[in-house]
Amino acid sequence: MISYGFNFEDVYIQRLFPGKKDGFYIDVGAAHPTEGSVTRHFYDLGWRGINIEPQQAYIQQLKRERTRDINLQLAVGSREEERTFFSLDGKGGSTFDPVNANRGSAMGFNVAKQTLPMTTLRKVCETYVKGPIDFLKIDVEGWEQQVIEGADWRRFRPMLVLAEATVPFSSEPAFHGWEPLLLQAHYMFAFFDGLNRYYLRSEDAHLASRLAVPVNVFDDFKPYRQHLAEEALKDIQATPIKRTRLYKALKRFERKIRHLLRK
CATH no. for residue 145? Predict the structure, then answer.
């Protein structure tokens, strides 16, 4: 498999669903449809799901590349309201948490503010979910607790929940406020990959051993950036040498040298 997740999250998830071609996911804080995406591998297998992303640039890319998915330009939290969204250069790290926005500003990011309507994960599920949810991924830069508070864990129970569990831009733990909510909803902690914490429904506790060890050679995967490099090399190797830019540049240089030598 090709792993698109920055921290190989999709490799861990794949262990729970070997061979499954028709699953369903919810991605809160989906960002780019490919680079760093936890769901791209599963989409390529034939899965579909819901991508929730407040940033216009990302949602446009999602709509172009994820035509089977439901792509929602939304914010989700603990209740329906309007909130200030802090966009950090329009990239990952953008957040509804003012503390983390200030941290990003101190690191040199340009912070732009806008007011956005916010709904709840419960409302999204009531509107769009028609069957089982295989996994839910939450990556909202310090807003994880509010997303979890706004879910209905009795009616909509993903088999797996993974949530970013550190303070943005650091390895400092940031899960103590929201982990009890998942435990009370009868989820069990299964694994921490250094960035995200993984939780299984109590009824799926027997699968915890599949998440017990770090990603390794037996997972049979390659990182997306390695895949891109290999594909670029194939293109170069498939191009006749006389048609390459380097060859043409060298020939121009050769002609100039010959011209100078004749003088």
Answer: 3.40.50.150
